[in-house]
Here is the input.
Amino acid sequence: MSLLLAGPGAVGAATGPAAGPAPTGVGDLLELVRAPAALSVPGDVLLGAAAAGLPTGPRTALRAASSVCLYWGGMALNDYADRELDAVERPERPIPSGRVTPGTALAVATGLTAAGLALASAAGGAAALRVAVPLAGTVWLYDLVLKDTPAGPAAMAAARGLDVLSGAAGSGRVRAALPSALVLAGHTAALTVLSRREVHGATPALPRATLAAGGLVAGTVLALGRRRGAAGRALTGLLTAGYLATAAPAQLAAVRAPSPVRVRRAVGAGIHAMAPLQAALSAAAGARGVALAPVLAVSLARRLARKVSPT
Here is the structure.
């Protein structure tokens, strides 16, 4: 069954082309929320659950669904907040193109946020909401207030860290997931700072600092995995090497010539490196069985991105 939301002028659409844009379709909403990109989010939840020593099961699935809803809501809210800028820089996006009205985007953001909180409550009650509510609040605060301020990277990092903690929320073991959350938040913060120079380029010092941050992240992951057996340490090392191999070459290229194009490539590589980082942290936590799930999810997301843009 198709979901159709009336856009402006839809009531009189039968009178001819001048009546206004067509009703918003499912494809427009999928583009609004960057549907394929959300496949990177369950990896956070699986990581949090693994770090807390929790088995995968229905509650973990509910936490993952909650995280996806909050992510999609944040994407819709992002486009609502950026609608005037997108009208100039990205007129093909759903809102400036007229395929989705600002009111519809805000309603989608609100509804998905509410759904995410309801799913978190179902997964872990009030204890889970103690993580989900701050996560939702951080997303809204970032999109509406902090995005272009000096606090923006910290807010983005906090959202990613809280997303990891949501995997353990309601279990009484949230603190066990804190090291993994901090590592992923650190990677996110460095990447967000670099992303601010995508348009105008940077000095070599910035991608050099991002590269150093990646080395620190990798070293921390290996340190977290030292308490595992030989097989666990080997898998952690292999996945950590995959993280560095994904992110570092583009960052090195940006150090040599930090043009806007190379900075954008470095940011893209850093985003792709999120999956092997999630996997390496899961292996370091002793969850070898779920360590490859984030990599598989991102591979699927790339295939779906051919049909629905993730950016």
About this structure: The radius of gyration is 20 Å. Residues 205-298 form one domain.
